[in-house]
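Lab meeting tomorrow. Please check the following:
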Amino acid sequence: MQSEFNTESRSATDLDPVDLRLLALMQQDAAQSNLALAQAAGVSAATALRRLRRLVETGVIERQVALLSPQAVGVPLAALVEVTLDRQGAEHLDAFEARAVAEPRVQQAWRVSPGPDFVLVVQVADMPAYHALAQRLFTQDANVRNVKAYFGVKRAKFETALPLPG
């Protein structure tokens, strides 16, 4: 997981219409062959390959992954968890963040403001699995002051594609 933004990444103003078409196609299905991407974007295969490599090298494309069904892999329970720490010094925030990021069941970890210090997105098998995670991550940490968990009852939308200019 990438925790900081790539400072060398291209800005949206550096992306031309061909880059944007390739990015839109990749967000729909990154498993397409280079030839299929090139044809759909209206460019040659060599151009598509060169541009995609540049988009990866400059950090516009962070990584390519497979999105799995939580139910199919045995982790159907989603929780959004607000965590407030007692002490918010940089070393305390960094320490909790490192523990949260190291936990495989934590899918996303956000430092937020105002309100709680962190919001975590967690995927677990069931409530006993959440309880075990809460014991490891929250209860055993003396600096955790408050935890508020919201459990998903229906996933109304789950999208990974970012809106592109134009």
